[in-house]
Amino acid sequence: MRGLAFSTVFEAAADAMILADDAGRIAVVNPTAQRLFGYTDSELQGITVEMLIAPRYRKQYRYYQDLFLKRPAKRAMSAGNELIVQNRDGKEILLDISLSPIRKKQQLLVLIIFNAARRRLDTEEALRISEERLRLAKQAAGLGIFDYNFKRNIIYWDKQMRKLWGRDSEKTVSYEEFVAAIHPEDREERRLAIEKAMDPTSNGEFKAQYRIVNPQNGMERWISAHGRVYFEFGHPNRLIGVTRDVTEQKQIQKKLQLHRDETENILKQQVAARTASAIAHELNQPLAAISAYSEVVLHALDSGSTSYSHLKRALEGCVEQAQRAGRSLHELLAFLQKGELVTERSSLTEIVYEALNVVYNDGYGRFHPVLRLQDNLPEVRCNRTQIQKVLVNLFRNAIEAMRNLDSPDLTIITRMGVIDEQKMAEVIVQDNGPGFDQSLVKRIFEPFFTTKPTGIGMGLAISRALIEANGGQLWIDADAETGAKFHFTLPLES
Ligand code: ADP
Q1: Which amino acid residue places its CA nearest to atom 17 of ligand 1?
Q2: May I ask the CATH architecture of the domain 142-245?
Q3: Per-residue DSSP letters for 147-214?
Q4: Vertex 197, ends 194 and 201: CA angle to 5°?
Q5: Do the two domains 142-245 and 344-491 of this chain adopt the same fold?
Q6: Distance (Å) from CA 82 to ligand 1 centroid
Q7: Maximum CA extent, the chain
Q8: Residue 484 · residue 476 · CB < 8 Å
Q9: Whole-model pTM above 0.70?
Q10: Which residue, of 138, 299, 424, 425, has the greatest Cβ tally within 10 A?
Q11: What is the atom index within ligand 1 of the atom nearest the CA of 449?
Q12: Which of the four pLDDT bands, split at 50, 70 and 90, describes residue 80?
């Protein structure tokens, strides 16, 4: 051992070593130092050690070197005298440096050892800082930590959890003691969650929400627990996780739920009211007609005029109106139940004629219909009955609006064309009645909005819903020069 050459030790040393002359110029560098600084031995030879020190520490290094050269003796630069070196990539490394004199004949050489002990301290410091960060984050998030050891049946818990569970002193607690504070109604669900996480075929994730009742003050809090089961040889070993007090969140959720329930109730009431109104809208007209026909029959019977054909016509009118009311109700209910919409290829012109016929047969009032069609109007895809219903509504509204005018020319113009870029057909229904008061335009599609003494205010609301269900839109032209001008669109048969 004695004969072991300096160079062998130098080469094998785990610490970085540099041998320099008394002017600080590097003579040899061991492999550890080459790795540490990122330079080869030959690259470093001849340059001063100072060049390896981070620039801002060079002056300090020179001071130590001068001190050393004045009284050469082994000394360390540790404990507050560390220096920062800089490697080839410019990375700074904090190191302890010790200097030892080596005499070779008349020459004084300096062995500089770079000790990485400080790096360990750095790691400890980093760990301490990261633990501190974790503690602060835990505190900020209001997290508690638990570690449940299945074999020993004990739970380690931290201060935050002990506070919630109403136990200040103990460090560990038995599982039974832990469970005692959990609300009896929530125990089973939590137990099942643990059981599921303990299943070795699962990913071990544990998630549960439960209430705990603080035994000291009887206060109830909601806890959200999240953890993971760790397995040893396929057996559950530990459950480690965090808990969070989510009481406030739960209260907010409860309030929101109450609010939602209330809103839903109001909506249900509105839907019920609208359904009832829509049914009334469908029955209003046929009932009025049946009533009129019945009066005719009664009157005829009272007055002794029993013309067979007269009575028959009136009764047939009753039957027809009653049947129509039945069909209308049936269709309306199907629409409200949002059953599948049955559509077919249809000619818009035919539907318009059918609607005009209905209005005529109802004896609704005199008017002059004008049709303006685009040539070769393509067919549309829609539910015929529904579109017919919309047109009947629009025609009736137009007739009612014009009825009080003394004008001999009560005209309803119906235009049909294609809006090319949208691949839609457009229908425009315009009357020459009084039109709309500008202040009311915005409201006419609202359910229950009516200006008529016996109106229900559902006609336009239902019409718009029907057109939208058929893939189109219904709107009013607020700038129409005369009367009221309604537009609606329908998809063309592709
Ligand atoms: P209702 O006919 O039962 O009043 P609607 O929803 O069909 O219900 O119509 C709502 C209101 O819109 C009517 O009361 C009327 O004031 C107005 N309105 C509808 N069509 C016309 C029209 N062609 N001209 C003038 N006003 C109209």
Answers
A1: 444
A2: 2-Layer Sandwich (3.30)
A3: EEETTTTEEEE-HHHHHHTT--S-SEEEHHHHHHTB-HHHHHHHHHHHHHHH-TTS--EEEEEEEEE-
A4: 145
A5: no
A6: 92
A7: 157
A8: yes
A9: no
A10: 425
A11: 10
A12: very low
- Identify the top-confidence range among 261-265, 365-369, 395-399: 395-399
pLDDT tens for each residue of 214-253 = 888 888 999 999 999 998 878 899 999 999 999 999 999 8
Q: What is the mean pLDDT of the chain?
A: 86
Domain made up of 7-121: CATH architecture: 2-Layer Sandwich (3.30)
In single-letter form, the type of residue at position 464 comes to R
What's the topology of domain 250-336?
Helix Hairpins (1.10.287)
pLDDT digits (tens, 9 = 90+) for 323-351: 988 888 877 777 666 666 788 999 999 99
Which helix H or strand E contains 242, and what residues bound it?
A: strand 235-245
Bridge partners, residue 426, by sequence: 417, 489
Phi and psi torsions of 51, nearest 5°: -65, -20
List pLDDT tens digits, range 181-225: 999 999 999 999 999 999 988 889 999 999 999 888 888 999 999
Q: Supply the residue whose CA is at minimum distance from atom 14 of ligand 1.
A: 450
Higher pLDDT, 39 or 119: 39
Q: Does residue 355 line the site of ligand 1, with CB under 6 A? A: no
- Can you give the residue ranges of every domain in the chain? 7-121, 142-245, 250-336, 344-491
Mutation choice for ligand 1 from 450, 474, 475, CB with most ligand atoms inside 8 A: 450
Between CA 336 and CA 242 the distance in angstroms is 50
Domain 344-491 falls in which CATH fold? Heat Shock Protein 90 (3.30.565)
Burial of 34 (0-12, 13-18, 19+ CB in 10 A): middle
Q: Which of 367, 444, 456, 467 to mutate to test the pocket of ligand 1 (most atoms within 8 A of CB)?
A: 444
> From the CB of 61, is ligand 1 less than 6 Å away?
no
